[in-house]
Design a protein that fits this description.
Blueprint: E1 2-4, H1 18-27, E2 30-36, H2 43-50, E3 56-60, H3 72-85, E4 91-98, H4 109-129, E5 133-136, H5 141-149, E6 156-159, H6 165-173, E7 177-180, H7 190-198, E8 204-206, H8 233-244, H9 248-262
Parallel strand pairs: 1-2, 2-3, 3-4, 4-5, 5-6, 6-7, 7-8
């Protein structure tokens, strides 16, 4: 079973042909698509979108890139919305949350501090509600791990993982799975490809991060920006199977099981 565990299907890049994008994903065999929220402004959008097609699911959270414009009251609103969503079969966890120390505007002392406050508050909410998280770990794996150690029992998915083997092992030891998508398909992405090839199969889930992180066949980094979409997870799965020397059916069965373990409410698929 094909599951895209991370797709920003509500993004404006899909406004012109969103229904066709969903149809192409279904035709490619994608049975579930998880749509993460990024700020309070799109909580209702992702909820409605997930309910609009078979296999649509969503998470609620405040993305680190949205933190500069977020208010402290947004955390209270998030808690209210999460509690209200607990009876919604489409709701699967808290995300996209995390830390981003790549963008210059997020690396100032003030923004680092605010990111940390929002991240830890959302981890506390996940711990209280016994919900998994989808975490953004760009240039921040060690810091994310530091806060996870303080929140015993919180597990989920480390999205778009691009850390070291040691960092991967620490996430796995805490019960996390690691998301791999388009970045893995570039031959020069040696570290990501080594991780994807050598980590245990039960450590991996598939994702697109569409419309971002387009795979190699949609265009090279630095060239014209190509739009990614959830149907591409089918070919991403094929590339991962080839890289690992696995049969495609075995890989699909394992990654789907991993996704359901990471996000247990997906078990309804």
């Amino acid at each position: 079973m094909l599951i895209d565990t991370h797709c920003h299907l509500d993004a404006s890049e899909f406004d012109a042909d969103r229904d066709a994008v969903i149809e192409r994903a279904a035709a490619a065999g994608v049975k579930a698509v998880v749509i993460p929220a990024v700020s309070r402004r799109n909580f209702q959008t992702v909820k409605r979108l997930a309910a609009s097609f078979p296999g649509g699911f969503y998470t609620l959270g405040i993305h680190p890139i949205a933190v500069p414009h977020a208010q402290e009251s947004d955390l209270e609103f998030l808690a209210e919305q999460v509690e209200a969503a607990l009876d919604d079969a489409r709701f699967v966890g808290i995300g996209e949350i995390g830390l981003d120390f790549f963008l210059p505007e997020l690396k100032t002392d003030a923004m680092r501090g605010k990111q940390v406050r929002f991240f830890d508050a959302q981890l506390a909410l996940a711990q209280k509600m016994d919900l998994p998280v989808v975490v953004h770990v760009r240039r921040s794996q060690d810091d994310v791990l530091k806060f996870l150690r303080r929140r015993e029992g919180v597990t989920g998915i480390a999205h778009a993982f691009n850390g070291s083997f040691q960092q991967a092992e620490q996430f796995l030891a805490r019960g996390f799975t690691l998301g791999f998508g388009g970045a893995m398909t570039f031959e020069r992405a040696l570290q990501i490809r080594r991780l994807a090839a050598e980590l245990p199969l039960d450590a991996l889930v598939l994702e697109t991060d569409a419309p971002d992180i387009p795979p190699a066949w949609l265009g090279r980094p630095g060239g014209e920006r190509a739009r990614n979409e959830p149907a591409e997870v089918a070919r991403i799965a094929e590339e991962l199977a080839l890289l690992r020397g696995e049969s495609l059916p075995a890989l699909l069965e394992a990654t789907a099981a991993n996704a359901r373990r990471a996000l247990p409410r997906l078990g309804r698929v």
